[in-house]
Amino acid sequence: MKALLVDSSSGKPVMKIGAAHKPEPGEKELLVKIMATALNRADLLQKAGKYDPPNGVTPILGLEMAGVVEKTGPGVTLYREGDKVFGLLSGGGYAEHCTIHEDLAMPVPEAFSFEEAAAIPEVYLTAYQAIIWLAELKEKESILIHAGASGVGTAAIQLAKNLRHARVITTTGSDEKCTLTASLGADLCMNYKEEDYAVSLEETFGKNSVDVILDFVGSPYWEKNLNVMAMDGRLIYLSMLGGSTVENMSLVPILRKRLTIKGSTLRNRSDRYKIDLTSIFWKHTYPLFASGALKPVIDSVFNWEQCEEAHQKMEENLNAGKIILNGM
Amino acid sequence: MKALLVDSSSGKPVMKIGAAHKPEPGEKELLVKIMATALNRADLLQKAGKYDPPNGVTPILGLEMAGVVEKTGPGVTLYREGDKVFGLLSGGGYAEHCTIHEDLAMPVPEAFSFEEAAAIPEVYLTAYQAIIWLAELKEKESILIHAGASGVGTAAIQLAKNLRHARVITTTGSDEKCTLTASLGADLCMNYKEEDYAVSLEETFGKNSVDVILDFVGSPYWEKNLNVMAMDGRLIYLSMLGGSTVENMSLVPILRKRLTIKGSTLRNRSDRYKIDLTSIFWKHTYPLFASGALKPVIDSVFNWEQCEEAHQKMEENLNAGKIILNGM
User: Looking at chain A, which terminus has fewer C-beta neighbours within 10 angstroms, N or C?
Assistant: First the structure.
């Protein structure tokens, strides 16, 4: 089969379509003809050699896909050839075919394109895991979502609003992105390039007002995050794109406000964990996707031959929502 | 009634017996003639003016007691006059009498002296909350307990061993204290003044081997704690006696090892929380106290007239286990 492979022959790694081994579906696995996949920041890291795939996982990039079941492995009971499915992958989405455990696959909802379905798994499952499982966001609590216009950010806004009727506060890097997060239901949207989010937040909602924070930024926000959190607040790190070293950090608020700080990634979780997460997620969100209350935010769709352009767009933080590849 | 009061007239605050208002039992409250109380580090902080009691709480020190029910308030159904009870207080243990909600009181087990019973509430409830509720220690996991010979430390060793059959690792500040923690069941005891606990721990049990850490020390141990923790490890802060500012702290392990860091104190929790904690704690531990498997470690017993000496001992870290006051 064809797949997008990392070509480092020129010194700078670039994605090029080449030949790869077509996988065979194992026990309870589906072989899927991929119709669309979506970009994740981990793809850029892996391409740059900074994020090795877990042991036993294909080196082909791509953490999610939507497509059509081409063949079922032994013991498959949930899907048949021709079914439209989508789901999370440990890798291998940038290709014509992949295999996926049937319990990790979800049926593509009617009226959803493959591009829309491919935009769901990573960001919604990551946001669901962070908000519902790790932070245990409660009804009407207050959540601060950094990088609110990112894929996970947009999914998090929708989930916090729809599942918990939370007060949602976002930071983004441009006024256009602020407008996007507001349109998704955020109650307060701040452009971090133009205002100090901690100050604006405190002016609007008072001191110590945030119950949950989703952070992708890391050390630059450590102190402010701890300061704006309420008693029993939960701070969830999903990445630390802005740095990970804090100088002169005070641990006092952790104790004084009984804070919880958690780091998490989805990719290195066990299959069992991902299956449980997928299953509970889909049960709680399927009706909301079907009704249109949850709707993946798609920034742009590229033919997979233009993968480099797509990567460039993400690298430069120019996307609001997911970047999709199709045409494989 | 008489009570130990903070006398700051000489400039240096000292404890002196004086007259205080005898409390009246309210709805569902017991009036208790206190027979013994126990010291907590919070007492020293409050005496020094560094830890104000929560709103509405008596300024009299003392966070736990054992005694005899002298009178029951309206609606009390669980106890009668003459019953021996013990339990957690928000304050007021350094006195002849106190009131306590009947749901916060526990019956003194047969064969337990008042001194032994008074040694239980703060340290066992704190350790139980930290290990079982916050860290969710699982069967046979590995737990590192700093200040292993402290009151909470000794309770934590016993609870981790008896309730979860955990591998218990302790740090203490003297060889005698190491011997004590070993006698309570610790599998590895390290004198932090003579060895680097992270090095010794790694030599004995390998890298990234600790699932749960109970820390009272704070910033001096931040980096080592994060380094020795296993995937999905949980670090619980109960105090930060060694400092709370970390220079050049790396947040990387939080994300890479999916760590959870929580701060907690017991005193500022709601009554509802304390009642739930007491009730579940006693259900799970009563048989173990009755059988002798759990046994409070008492360092020394002072007549309450010698309270200053008792405080001095704790101030100098000379105690291993609880310091008790009686004779009120």
Answer: N
Q: What is the pLDDT of residue A50?
A: 86
In the prediction, which pLDDT does B268 show? 82
| A230 & A109 share domain | no
- How many domains, in total, are found in chain A? 2
Q: Which of B50, B51, B237, B251 to mutate to test the interface with A (most CBs of A within 10 A)?
A: B251
Question: In this predicted structure, what is the pLDDT of residue A266?
Answer: 87
Encode burial over B244-267: b for 16+ CB neighbours within 10 A, e otherwise: bebeebbbebbbbbbbbbbbbbbb
Residue pLDDT, tens place only, A207-220: 999 999 999 999 99
Token pair in block for residue A279: 């299953």
Looking at the fold, whether B53 and B88 belong to one and the same domain comes out as yes
Q: Are residues A14 and A61 in the same domain?
A: yes
Helical ranges in A14-136 per DSSP H: 41-47, 114-118, 121-128
- pLDDT at position A161 is 98
A89 neighbors A108 (Cβ within 8 angstroms): no
All residues of chain B having their beta carbon less than 8 Å from the beta carbon of residue A240 are 251-252, 255
pTM equals: 0.90
φ, ψ of residue B165 to 5 degrees: the values are 50, 40
Contacts A–B by Cβ distance under 8 A: 94
Smallest Cα distance from B3 to chain A, Å: 29
Q: Residue A180 contacts by C-beta under 8 Å, 6 or more apart in sequence?
A: A149, A154, A172, A297, A320, A321
The 8-class DSSP code of residue A23 comes to P
Q: What's the whole-number average pLDDT of chain B?
A: 95
User: Searching chain A, which residue's CA lies closest to the CA of residue B216?
Assistant: A255
Q: Evaluate if residue B54 carries a pLDDT over 80.
A: no
| CATH code of residue B83 | 3.90.180.10
Pseudo-torsion of CA B300, B304, B309, B315, nearest 10°?
80
The C-alpha atoms of residue A133 and residue A86 are separated, in whole angstroms, by 22
Pairing of strands B29-38, B97-101: antiparallel
**A179: domain CATH number?**
3.40.50.720
Q: Which amino acid is at A74?
A: P
Are the beta carbons of B249 and A245 separated by less than 8 Å?
Answer: yes
For residue B278, give its domain range.
Answer: 2-120+267-326
Selected residue of A238, A248, A260 to mutate for chain B interface (largest B Cβ count, 10 A): A260
Nearest to B63 by CA among B327, B241, B316, B324: B324
Q: Among A237, A253, A256, whose Cβ lies nearest the Cβ of B255? A: A237
Is the Cβ pair B254, A248 closer than 8 Å? no
